[in-house]
Amino acid sequence: MALHKDSYVELNDGHKMPVLGFGTYAPEKFPKSLAEQGTKMAIEVGYRHIDCAFFYGNEREVGRAIRAKIADGTVKRGELFYTGKLWSTFHTPERVRLCLEKSLKDLQLDYMDLFLIHTPIEFHPGDDPLPKDKHGRYIYHNTDIRETWKALEECKDSGLVRSIGVSNFNHKQLELILNMPGLKYKPVCNQVECHIYLNQSKLLEFCKSKDIVLVGFSVLGSSRDESWIDPKIPVILEDPALNTIAQKHNRTPAQVAMRFLLQRGVVVLAKSFTPARIQQNFQVFQFQLDAEDMENLDKINRNLRYDYTPMWSDHPKYPFHEEY
């Protein structure tokens, strides 16, 4: 399809999701107010899809930005697509709605457009988002993910959320939900790390075959948070092939990296709190990559994962032991 600034993808439940979203995650060292300013600017520039999460700790600020832009007439609530996420201490069925309601209260919104299980990895239920024992080890929990999913289906039926999906799931974990007895709603999407070094072609193919949208985060690499990213890992935006194609089209490497994913049918989340970049990233609809560009970018895949959370790799539901 021809991609333009109002392009959207139709989800398997009939709702529509804009193909370009604004990501709001920032490492702890950044002030939460940046998310508020960034979200306001993103809506002014034209973004209609805002991606956030309970775990980011900035839904109050993001909600304020959304309400300010509705109040000043820039946008109507119905034109915005808001994604929130169920954190890992809320997987037990009786806590699912609690997490959703906490987020809605912080956002001061009546409903979410999309609510995702943030990750299949689950922690001990409680108020501490990352509970540890006295030896400093994470305290895990192991609810049957299908029970969690049923509780999400109830949230959809209640009208608190329009669509439901997952994030960071591998194909086997998706299949567990798709094949569960009494499944009422399929996940509309799987939000995963996706970029030119991790192009997710197998997972993308699998999701397309099940009418599930692949949503990509860390599309320009990662925020390179020293606490969990190896600083020696290559920087996506410095890739020579990417830069050659960017020069050919007179575009930024970031614009080309995003356009590559969009043309493959991936919904792209772009994150920046820099005004100029927020604007630049939205200009991905103004050019097109040809078949040769697409092929050359496809070749630089390295199956390189920035966000592989090694500290949780011993969890029974750690998703990244599987190839896809």
From TrEMBL:
Gene Ontology process terms (BP): steroid metabolic process
Domain NADP-dependent oxidoreductase, first and last residues per copy: 20-301
Cellular component GO terms, alphabetical: cytosol
Residues with site note (Lowers pKa of active site Tyr): 85
Alphabetized GO MF terms: aldose reductase (NADPH) activity; ketosteroid monooxygenase activity; steroid dehydrogenase activity; structural constituent of eye lens
Positions contributing to substrate binding: 118
Entry keyword S-adenosyl-L-methionine: no
UniProtKB keywords: Eye lens protein
Residues of the active site: 56 (proton donor)
Protein name listed in UniProt: Rho crystallin
Organism: Xenopus laevis (African clawed frog)
